Amino acid sequence: LTGLRGSTSQYFVEQVLTKAQFVPAKDYDEGVKLVLEGKVNAMIADYPICVFSLLRYPNEGLLTVITPLTYEPLGIAVPSYDPHLVNWIENFLHSLEETGAKEELKTRWFRKASWLYRLP
Q: Which phi and psi (to 5°) does residue 99 adopt?
């Protein structure tokens, strides 16, 4: 089992999957390479990384677990002295949700692979 060295994925494996042998990867590309070469059986990573790997290597027989193993809430840190920025961000996030733009972004980045051709 591989994952990003020093990440919450490594912590999860060490704390929860105590019988698994963890092979740390310096970056996600190395982790995916370890899986593709059969040096490890799986990689544990954030859901977007897993989906990206599926899109980038569509013919390699990769699959991802749909249900996350852990829940890690994400936040946006902004200066406390800037209430206008806080208000703008809250309004922007609310607008994304209410207009359906959030779902469109999820489809664009996580369900379609057309943007991958631009990567090196």
A: -85, -10
Contact criterion met (CB below 8 Å) for 2 and 42: yes
Residues 6+ apart with CB under 8 A from 6: 24
Per-residue pLDDT of the chain (120 residues; tens, 9 = 90+): 999 999 988 998 999 998 999 999 999 999 999 999 999 999 999 888 888 898 889 899 998 887 666 666 667 888 889 999 999 999 999 999 999 998 888 888 878 878 877 777
Question: Which amino acid, one-letter code, is at 65?
Answer: V
Distance CA 74, CA 95 (A): 18
Q: How far is CA 108 from the centre of its chain?
A: 15
